[in-house]
Write a structure and sequence with these properties.
This is Alcohol dehydrogenase. GO terms for molecular function: alcohol dehydrogenase (NADP+) activity; butanol dehydrogenase (NAD+) activity; metal ion binding; methylglyoxal reductase (NADPH) (acetol producing) activity. By secondary structure, the protein is an alpha/beta fold. Helices cover 50% and strands 10% of the residues. The strands form 2 sheets. The chain has a 7-stranded mixed β-sheet with strand order 1-2-9-6-5-3-4, sandwiched between helices. Strand 1 and strand 2 form a beta hairpin.
Length: 399
């Protein structure tokens, strides 16, 4: 296969609306990025991150050295949790404004990067709050420069225009999408991901798979999003088992990182629908639920629900995982069982009940899917009608 000809230690520059540096050792590019910021008279930045990974991976040492060599002062907000909240964004924004930061560097997975995108906007809008941003109470038109140092191979947020932050008081987990929050530069260095725990490795990788399952079947799907979906699924099917067997395999981590990145491009173009719209309520009411785990628990029922409308596309895209699909409408139950079995084989126990949900939660979850700001737009992109009955059925079958 063509992957065998790739030198994973050669740092590639991949251009979209973001410039992504991909490769083992890509963290060294932070030196050039810091120099670029300084050349634009940006002398103060805020780093937005979680509690531990930014240090334990060694990424922070590179960032500090690069900033100091370029004469850029910095402060750090390290309070971002999985499923970040508006309160965390407001705290980080207050710190940034008081410090005088004119750019944001995020270090982490999807949660820190999404929080950082929000901070990058709100620095320019000090009179507004994160809750107002995520309830669409105002329409921003700018953000300060954002740099993303990605530490997981699943989110795709290092190369897209989306961000997700929860409003805990309302059990809302909305999203925003603006062209001006594409990171200017992103670093995808698989060398920083070698110590990613097995459960997180599974969750983030299946997050990437979910991105393309939705992006190739939405009403906005295109040949481009479908092509990227096919390659994402192939790479995940090939390299996830290898990483499970040997977490230190740099080549396998490299191609899972690449798969995640192109999955981000796929859904940046083809957009999302059921799985993400229905997962957001799950982790809104249980913030400790990992986003990727929530997706893993409901995607088989989603695929069952949409299979009749997208059977040929899904049979093709999922062929590395379920090789005997024919692409006929009578395979809905088969794809539900086979995809669920594959996810379980990878190491995730199926069933929302195992994550603490019950039949009593179905109505509330269904209401949140329709009431949370922004999720209606995702539901409208599903290839079948997103009625309350359909949404409730997906949750129920996922129990």
């Amino acid at each position: 296969m063509w992957e065998n000809s790739i030198n994973v230690e050669q740092i590639c520059e991949i251009r979209s609306k973001s410039i992504v540096y991909l490769g083992v050792g890509a963290i060294s590019k932070i030196n050039d990025i810091a120099s670029n910021l300084k050349s634009r008279n940006i002398t103060k930045i805020i780093a937005v991150t979680g509690k531990k990974a930014y240090r334990s991976t060694g990424a922070w040492n590179h960032v500090v050295k690069a900033l100091e060599q370029s004469g850029i002062d910095y402060t750090i907000y390290d309070g971002v949790t999985p499923n970040p909240t508006t309160h965390q964004v407001d705290e980080a924004t207050k710190m940034a404004i008081e410090f005088g930061a004119r750019a944001v560097i995020s270090i982490g997975g999807g949660s820190p990067i999404d929080a950082a995108k929000s901070v990058a906007i709100l620095i320019n809008y000090p009179e507004n709050t994160a809750q107002e941003l995520y309830e669409y109470s105002f329409t921003p038109t700018s953000a300060v420069p954002l740099i993303a140092i990605n530490l997981t191979h699943g989110t795709g947020t290092e190369i897209d225009r989306f961000a997700v932050v929860s409003i805990p008081e309302k059990e809302f987990k909305p999203y925003i999408a603006y062209d001006f929050i594409y990171p200017e530069y992103s670093i995808d260095d698989p060398g920083l991901m070698l110590n990613l725990p097995e459960d997180q490795t599974l969750y983030v990788t299946i997050d990437a798979l979910n991105h393309v399952i939705e992006a190739c079947t939405s009403k906005a799907a295109s040949p481009y999003s479908i092509m990227l979906a096919k390659e994402t699924a192939r790479l995940i099917a090939k390299y996830l088992p290898i990483v499970k067997e040997n977490p230190k395999d740099l080549k396998a981590r490299y191609f899972l990182t690449y798969a995640s990145m192109i999955a981000g491009v796929s859904f940046d173009n083809g957009l999302l629908h059921f799985t993400h719209a229905l997962e957001h309520p799950l982790s809104a009411i249980k913030p400790d639920l990992a986003h990727g785990l929530g997706l893993s628990l409901i995607v088989p029922a989603v695929v069952r629900q949409i299979y009749s409308a997208s059977c040929q596309t899904l049979a093709d895209v999922l062929s590395p995982i379920i090789p005997d699909l024919k692409g006929t409408t009578d395979e809905s139950d088969k794809v539900f069982v086979d995809l669920r079995n594959w996810i379980e084989k990878m190491g995730i126990t199926p069933g929302l009940k195992n994550a603490g949900y019950s039949e009593k939660d179905i109505e509330h979850l269904t209401n949140l899917a329709f009431d949370t700001p922004g999720l209606a737009s995702l539901l409208s992109l599903a290839p079948v009608e997103a009625s309350r009955t359909v949404v409730s059925d997906i949750y129920t079958r996922s129990l």
